[in-house]
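User: Structure tokens for both sequences below?

Assistant:
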Amino acid sequence: MFGDNPVFKYKDEDGSLMGPYSILLYNPGLIEPWFGLASAVTKQAMLEPRGKELAVLAVTAVYEAPYILYAHRLIGASIGLSEDEITNASKGRLSKSLTESEVVTYTIAYELAEGRGPLSESSWTRALAVLGREKTASIAHLVSGYVYTCILLNVGAIGAPE
């Protein structure tokens, strides 16, 4: 799922899984389906790398899962997000350097993660106009996948590697 050289640690020095992967070991029947869903959600072709990382950082701004923030700060930097963009996104703020598409992506991701209800009519209308239905739906899948992951991390109080 991570390729040969991920930019973040997902195994410790002993080779044990870290992050959300460690809590999956308590429910072995969910490991394969979880990785299948995680892979499908994160590899959606409709989402550009910057928008995808901004959406994930929006979820971390709401759910405060240190491991996801750790991993996606590194991933975000590796795909061209600035330190300012990463910091602002992880704190629920928009950077002025974002494109309109990135602003809409971040805004709906944050609203979905925070709202626990329907997307507002104004956000839906703007998302359709700027992103289209398919990309908006892709963002919803990504957000829901990361909300699930953040909840797993927060149940286990799983932090970031030192």
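Moving on to the next sequence.
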Amino acid sequence: MPIDFHLSATEQGIRSAAAAFAAGPLKYAKKTYMKYQNHHERFQSTRPIYHQAVAGGLVKGQIAPHLGGAGGTLIEAAILVEEMYTVEPSTSLTIFSTGLGLTPINLAGKPEHKEFLAPFLSGEGEPLASLVFSEPGGVANYLEKGAPGLLTTATLEGDEWVLNGEKIWATNSAGWDFEGADLQCVVCRTTTPSSDEPADSIMILLVTIADIRRNAPGAFKVLRQVSTAGHTACSGPHIKYTNLRVPAKNILCPPGTGAPIVSAAFDCTAVLVGAMSVGIMRAAFDAALAFAKGDNRRGASELLTRQAVADLLSGIKMQAEACRALTWKAANCLENGPGDYNARRELALAAKIYCSDTCTKAVTEAINVVGITAYDADQPFADLLTTAMVLPIFDGGNVGIRRRHMQQLMLSKDYDSWASTYGPSK
């Protein structure tokens, strides 16, 4: 069988390096940022850890080799994400969201776009990137004909694009000082579309911090810092562009070419959300197992000897293993096949949906193992649950977006049910 779950030397090296970073800088991140009440101040307090991540190659490692980066396979990325998310999700999300912000350039970048990557290839400083997509009111149906679509617009005036609109939930979009990230990949629509098909108007503009500084004050503005239930040291504020001017050369995807790149970027991150989910399940299982082995609830033997407790723990363990296997298969399939792109994409969607939904269930089961003690804020379970709860609803919500994409695939007359496993049936 062409299946081998032994990690290669490279994969094992990545896992070891990620585990070392998690056991070092990441391990004490929460102790540092929880000194601050406001979430945006917590985010800023993680900057020294992000600096270490940059110096250690974790940002350059998210850039494709053909653009000068050190990026590897999607399976390697999944291994990295799982290890770091097991220990500290919030700070890790900032690091990996820079990777998402750079993904459109990985997918569509040309030699002339390399200048935008310079800060991220240097291994110095704390450069942040962001894929700026979501808007107030949501974007689940932004390509529906006859609907308002994206409200963020770009108008070509001479040799400049003029950007207007509001965005929200885009991690890292405002940068460390909330005056703009080092690089934003802004998904917007042209005001002069070539047709009435919504996809024909979608484009991606590159906005740098230097561009923002060349504009008048207020051209880029944070309207509100968003506090969240989990990931409380991340930044995804409500922002606004008002006649923000960027050079015409800053266009990454011209009108009509942006939507497929947005979709492909989120196909990659769908797999990584699967890995995030496994990391959270690992943390929940380990904490619940330790409790079950060390507490007897005034009984004659440890809790793990009780069948109900053992059943819950074995269920969590099996769910984590199944989700990891699905994530790794989806990662390999998306890059290597078999099947056409739609078949390969289906597994990425499945990994995001199944693993994130399963994660919230697994954490709840871990809480049931521990009982009322899990409600103690000194225990990790409340944080794990508030972290897990976002996985099904961010990065394309499972109900509004990801399951709808699977529905579209199945509705296709060319749908080939098992092509992602066995190859085309015809």
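User: Anything stand out in the second?

Assistant: DSSP finds 14 helices and eight strands in the chain.
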